[in-house]
Amino acid sequence: MDIVIRPVESGEYEQLGEITARAYLQDGLLDFEESDAYLGELRDVAKRAAAAEVLVAAEHGRVLGGVTFVPDGGPMADIARPGEAEIRMLAVARAARGRGAGEALVRACVDRARAVEGCTGVVLSTQRAMRSAHRVYERLGFVRTPGRDWNPLPDLDDITLLTYELTL
Length: 168
Fold this sequence. Notes:
Strand order of the largest sheet: 1-2-3-4-5-7-6
Helix content: 25-40%
Structural class: alpha+beta
Distance between the termini: 27 Å
Number of strands: 7
Number of helices: 5
């Protein structure tokens, strides 16, 4: 495997934004498809990189996917409590799936969390349909935390994000 995990470069923001947006769209993860407001957030890698650490999986200089690592709260955290890091917006291009890029990105986040002084765990939110991602999380020791499941759009009853946690 020649996949390298590294910080995103500014010249890759647009490319990673499109990979992330396409992954969510192609997998049917946006309730409002192309008109979903969250699509803009998925594409805005510059905004994420200014508030958190954005990592990419690259092979021979080609970006395969990326993830946002939130080490200690801040504007990019959704569910992290004090002492927890959070993983957000994990996405791998459809053509690059099944080769370990997603797992390598999650492992890199866990490694970074272990290096954060006082960090006791890593948390993340996911959708029910993201079964492949659930398998990766569980293989790496994450456990479901149903008591933390939440709805990012309280006005819509049918959206519930599942949560996972890894105790460090």
